[in-house]
């Protein structure tokens, strides 16, 4: 296996691109791909301030690394969810994130859910839904709310997350199986700040395969948390990822094609009607000012209202 660029020892075979690269050229190639996605989807400019949501995993830490290497102005945001598990998931991911920020002289904002709202994520899920709901959906809602608020209050132009192609393809697959038009039309590399109170969200890694991100983190020597969140076990998204991996093994490039064809179809107007309808039904939550489609307070504020009552009594 020889590097296409220098003939040196190849360390990775990018089958879908019919490309073999050595360590040095791979570590150059990947940031170039990310830069292309940033440009192609008009994610942000070198003048804008980017808040990178970092979980301590390989994708978001590598994203922070790549954006820094590309010369962007970035700060990090870590949200302490208070998830325990065997390895003290949250403590360990915070430690690794702080270690990365420290080593690179980067600024990290940390927001701990339990300190701010009185209860950690698993307890909020347990108490407000009496254990009926998996913590993951409550967790997702809390993360989205905090990410947007932190970016807005910190005066950042854009919030970047580490979602990779496998993440995006799995979500797309799930949404397609259900033909969830509402979710489908909001899925994409960029979620524009077209509603008051909302900051632009971008996914610079949306065209990069998960295994490419793992290889990058490994070759760059980035220490990250290997374990998945303990609540993710048995999640349908993991099942969808496995299915798509089977497809990819037989048809290299299938995952990328699935995602890119979707973006093309969307651009062609596949969801235009649904998009307009959904946008019209959004209005700012009277309590927090973030957009919601439900009458009155948003789902986050209603949930936190319950938490407030619980922690008072
Ligand atoms: P996940 O939903 O866990 O697959 O994570 C997707 C992306 O959300 C990650 O790549 C991060 O950018 C962001 N993220 C997830 N968890 C956290 C966290 N605890 N703090 C900050 N960002 C996070
Ligand atoms: Fe939120 Fe697992 S990361 S429930
Ligand atoms: Zn080379
Ligand atoms: Zn609200």
Task: Throw out a few tags for this protein.
two-stranded antiparallel sheet, 6-stranded mixed β-sheet, single chain, binds FE2/S2 (inorganic) cluster, alpha/beta, 13 helices, binds adenosine monophosphate, globular, binds zinc ion
Q: Could you provide a short overview of the structure?
A:
With about 325 residues, the protein is α/β, with parallel strands linked by helices.
Write a structural description.
This protein is α/β, with parallel strands linked by helices. The protein contains 13 helices and 10 strands. It has helices at residues 23-40, 58-69, 89-104, 113-117, 121-129, 135-153, 165-177, 181-186, 210-220, 236-250, 254-267, 272-280, 299-312; strands at residues 12-14, 19-21, 49-53, 73-80, 108-112, 158-160, 190-191, 200-202, 283-284, 291-292. Helix 7 packs across helix 11. The chain is globular and about 70 Å long. 35% of the residues are buried. The structure holds adenosine monophosphate (AMP), FE2/S2 (inorganic) cluster (FES) and zinc ion (ZN) (2 copies). The site of one zinc ion has 8 residues, from helix 1. One zinc ion binds at residues 285, 287-288, 290, 297-298, 300-301.
């Amino acid at each position: 296996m020889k590097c296409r660029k220098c003939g040196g020892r190849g360390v990775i075979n990018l089958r879908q691109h019919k490309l073999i690269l050595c360590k040095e050229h791979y570590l150059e190639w990947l940031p170039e791909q990310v830069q292309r996605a940033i440009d192609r989807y008009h994610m942000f400019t070198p003048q804008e301030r980017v808040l990178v949501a970092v979980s301590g995993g390989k994708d978001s830490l590598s994203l922070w690394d790549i954006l820094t290497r590309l010369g962007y102005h970035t700060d990090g945001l870590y949200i302490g969810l208070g998830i325990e598990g065997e390895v003290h998931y949250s403590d360990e991911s915070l430690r690794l994130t702080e270690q990365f920020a420290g080593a690179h002289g980067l600024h990290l904002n940390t927001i701990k859910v339990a300190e701010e709202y009185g209860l950690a994520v698993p307890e909020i899920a347990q108490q407000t839904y009496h254990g009926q709901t998996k913590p993951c959906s409550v967790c997702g809602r809390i993360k989205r709310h905090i990410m947007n608020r932190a970016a807005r209050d910190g005066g950042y132009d854009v919030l970047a997350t580490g979602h990779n192609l496998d993440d995006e393809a799995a979500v797309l697959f799930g949404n397609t199986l259900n033909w969830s038009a509402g979710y489908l039309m909001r899925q994409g590399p960029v979620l524009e700040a077209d509603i008051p109170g909302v900051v632009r969200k971008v996914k610079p890694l949306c065209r990069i395969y998960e295994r490419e991100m793992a290889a990058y983190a490994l070759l760059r020597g980035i220490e990250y948390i290997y374990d998945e969140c303990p609540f993710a076990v048995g999640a349908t998204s993991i099942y969808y990822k496995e299915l798509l991996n089977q497809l990819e093994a037989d048809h290299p490039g299938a995952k990328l094609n699935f995602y890119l064809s979707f973006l093309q179809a969307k651009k062609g107007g596949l969801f235009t009607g649904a998009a307009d309808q959904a946008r019209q039904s959004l209005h700012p939550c009277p309590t927090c000012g973030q957009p919601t489609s439900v009458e009155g307070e948003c789902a986050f504020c209603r949930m936190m209202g319950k938490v407030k009552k619980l922690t008072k009594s």
